[in-house]
């Protein structure tokens, strides 16, 4: 419910008397919103905060450069147009790859159920906040915020669908024996006994997707009618895909290939330049919608939940629901998973679609 506070950013950006102050405001906003990154990277890569700080600052420089260069000393709708261009550049490819903490995400809180109309209304309010009409726009934001808060309810999943959160830490998907798969199957069985027909497991839950793993799961589900959607990695000599797989009795398939893996830690396109194939592949605009059990699904894996373009690309295809998964063990003690969950909930509420989430911590 605090997401609309992000709309203070365009007002403060426009109120800056100089380009230097506008740049400082942009840096402060981005660094505060992504403050969990240095600690998370330090947890992922080991002791030392240098790499986390470098990634944090590097991503910030893109955001700051766009908003700093497009700032104008002249007030009015010309300045609003410049902010609109900056917001668009940070929402779409290629700069949208690091378009975290976009103020448009607040649309789901301000105008739940309004869909594209609500997104447009939020954009117009955001631009009005950069003009002399900002007091009127601020009152409109506060009014919509209070009205929404009075009847707010988090999005729920469709009947028979259930997301399973796990607390397996860094071990998830990395076990070299079948014990972890048995633990996950126990989670699935409990969810099935509670009435779930489709069970969603977190990103990377199944580890490397091989014929052996596929056969183990198909055999385990052979006597049930439950369907499992889970994260895995498909590896070949050119790299790997971060995927969601769908498994049922006697059948299994790759359901979704991640469009935007985490830059640097997963997506490292420069490795192909030197003949190495250790990078996750980014499928960008591929498979925005997948179909499972007769439902059109907008899948969002981990990093995709922090961006604007993946979810909007999926929503152009009118999905029936959103499935959001993540493996956030490395974010312990940070706000990252909380932001991912809040973003997924906001988009689901904006477009009035059910939401199923599954995270590992």
The number of domains is 2
The helical percent reads 40-55%
Rg measurement, Å: 21 Å
Distance between the termini: 23 Å
Strand content: 15-25%
Major sheet description: 5 strands, mixed
The CATH topology of the largest domain comes to Nitrilase/N-carbamoyl-D-aminoacid amidohydrolase
Key terms:
361 residues; alpha/beta; Nitrilase/N-carbamoyl-D-aminoacid amidohydrolase; 2 domains; five-stranded mixed β-sheet; four-stranded mixed β-sheet; 42% helix; Carbon-nitrogen hydrolase; membrane; hydrolase activity; Conjugal_tfr_TraB_rhizob; transmembrane helix
Question: Could you please describe the fold and organization of this structure?
Answer:
With 361 residues, this protein is an alpha/beta fold. The chain folds into two domains: 149 residues, no CATH class; 199 residues, Carbon-nitrogen hydrolase (Nitrilase/N-carbamoyl-D-aminoacid amidohydrolase, 4-Layer Sandwich), CATH 3.60.110.10. The chain is 42% helix and 16% strand. A five-stranded mixed beta sheet has the order 1-2-3-4-5, with helices on one face. Helix 1 packs antiparallel against helix 2. The longest helix has 21 residues. It is globular and about 70 Å long. The relative contact order is 0.13.
Give the gist of this structure.
With 361 residues, this protein is α/β, with parallel strands linked by helices. It has helices at residues 8-15, 19-33, 37-45, 50-70, 77-91, 107-110, 116-128, 134-150, 179-193, 211-220, 309-315, 336-351, and strands spanning 161-163, 198-200, 227-236, 239-248, 251-257, 290-292, 295-301, 321-327, 355-360.
